Amino acid sequence: MERKILIEKRDNRIRTYFLEDGDIVEIHSAPVEETGAGCHRLGDVYVGKVKNIVPNIGAAFIEIEKGVNCYYDMKDAKTAFFTHKSGQKALCIGDELVVQISRQAIKSKAPTVTGNISFTGRYAVLTHGNTRIGVSSKIPKSLRDNYKEQLSSFQNDRYGIIVRTNARDVPFQEVINEINSLREEYDALFENVCTRKCFSCLKSAPPSYILDLKNVYMDGMKEIVIGDKGLYTRIQSYFRSELPDKADLLKLYDDPSFPLDKLYSTQTILEKALKERAWLKTGGYLVIQPTEALTVIDVNSGKTAVRAGSRSGSEEGAMKVNLEAAREAAKQIRLRNLSGIIIVDFINMDSEENTQRLLSEFRFLLAKDPIQTSLVDITPLGLVEITRKKVRRPLYEEENYHLQPLTEAL
What we know:
Layout: E1 3-10, E2 13-20, E3 23-31, E4 45-54, E5 59-65, E6 68-73, E7 82-84, E8 96-103, E9 112-114, E10 118-120, E11 124-128, E12 133-135, H1 141-150, E13 159-163, H2 172-192, E14 201-203, H3 208-215, E15 221-226, H4 229-242, E16 250-252, H5 260-263, H6 266-273, E17 277-279, E18 285-290, E19 295-300, H7 311-335, E20 340-345, H8 352-366, E21 373-378, E22 383-388, H9 395-400
Parallel strand pairs: 1-15, 6-9, 12-13, 15-16, 19-20
Antiparallel strand pairs: 1-2, 2-3, 4-5, 4-8, 4-14, 5-6, 7-8, 8-9, 10-11, 11-13, 17-18, 18-19, 20-22, 21-22
Helix pairs in contact: 7-8
């Protein structure tokens, strides 16, 4: 597979487009300014203070900045690193502890934080609070077993190690070198943390467009095209430091007469990805409606007459639309970064054989998503249930997101 990345700065936002075989498959969007009070990036580490405890939901609210109270699962208290303890219980109001942002703020809600601090590299993650040695399931089993055996000497009671998918095509020693670097970062943070004041930011995550490049799988990557000179300089500096062998992938595109968004039609694709309706080649279409609790995707036959003619013709037409809808739904889920619970309402079919064929094809398409996506089941009403891991805000929220003043929770 041939991969390419486009990065452009426009409308006071930085957008990263991921292409596979010439098609844009993901769009990440972030404001140009991601610094200052009220800006909290995924991965930032703070000394927070317990503001409130709500036992009936097993949660606490931890303040990481004056007036910014974040949800915290009390199960994390078992492995928490406290800089100040106010009582004998596992977690007490007034306790100060190290927390990391594990989920971004959504609309008027503050971020979610965890006490299980992660130090993420390109090939491995070092995890405080989870001491197991793990290897990505997307790495072949023989290589996974080899990694687990060779990393057994790293087993300890302070932190664990997870080998990422990116490690499957690099020498083992390169992964070991990165793990050792992450261990040094881990030791430096926890050795000095008790001298830091409450609300201190112990570790700032890099800008989201740098994280995108750090996390992306480089196999088949042909070029990374950057449409802004300032961004190019920043990214070039990062590559020279962290990925010197990949620095030649960077290309600056600065033709003002024909900008990047015109060359690759990024503006048009972005606008379509923000619309409620996505058209199918058969004449049908999807209606994609996110709600607070879940996202609903409704399949409509549109111009395709699935009920015309004989019953067998109707079934055949429905199957044709449904198969194309499955392909487009899988594409749109990734493109729009939809997550959580997703319900797809396909056109009803009478044949159980066709239904199972559709589910099998849909499951295969969803498995290609680099973010964990699972087809759970089909309900008695014929609704297909999907879950997709939440990593960042969906595209429609990124594009329309403006952080409101956050008031104290509970």
